[in-house]
Design goal:
The chain contains 6 helices and 5 strands, in the order βαβαβααβαβα. By secondary structure, the chain is an alpha/beta fold. The protein has a 5-stranded parallel beta sheet with strand order 2-1-3-4-5, with helices on both faces.
């Protein structure tokens, strides 16, 4: 069964290591019949959450702020799977990804019990460091986030040892992992 996949690309580099992971993931996912909608958050006008808790009144545009999140909301609501793609910045996801993800709370505000839509999820992350210890803070954040949302983890690709844009091209195993993960989504 094909899946509707939304990719939230939190990388500011259009041709960086995270982009290469996404490209391979997409190739695998399309091969398995999934449809992909990708949002390159760096190119979008998305403001930080105001914490006002006044969203949810208009399901087609749930946040009180009117910006490019209105492009993401419909695809997010329809998606079976959300891909969180980001370089590691200070042992966490990028600000671009965190800002957009925080704003998804407005969709939960459409439910009287603030229930988030249940999704499957994947994490794609490129980083300079390549040890388990390096990825632990992100692993903890990601798995805690999914636990609290009630989402299912469908896979993680940690691509360490990639500092400069393009470093990942010399690591075919990391790119193969992203492709294989995409192909496994059914």
């Amino acid at each position: 069964m094909s899946k509707k996949i939304v990719i939230l690309n939190g990388s500011p580099r259009p041709n960086g290591n995270t982009a290469a992971l996404i490209e391979q993931f997409v190739k695998g996912a399309e091969q398995s019949g999934s449809t992909i909608t990708q949002f390159d958050l760096q190119k979008m006008n998305i403001h930080g959450c105001l914490g006002c808790c006044k969203g949810g009144k208009d399901p087609s545009s749930p946040c009180v702020q009117k910006d490019d999140m209105d492009k993401i909301y419909p695809a997010y609501k329809e998606a079976d799977l959300v891909v969180l793609a980001s370089p590691m910045y200070y042992w966490g996801i990028s600000g671009q990804l965190k800002t957009a993800f925080d704003r998804l709370f407005a969709v939960a505000e459409c439910d009287p019990h603030y229930a988030n839509p249940v999704k499957d999820c994947v994490l794609l992350m490129a980083a300079e460091g390549d040890t388990e210890e390096n990825f632990e803070p992100v692993r903890h954040f990601y798995l805690s986030l999914l636990h609290h949302l009630g989402w299912k983890d469908c896979g993680i690709v940690y691509a360490g040892g990639n500092m400069a844009a393009g470093d990942i091209q010399s690591k075919p195993k990391q790119l193969e992992q992203a492709f294989s993960l995409g192909a496994s989504i059914r």
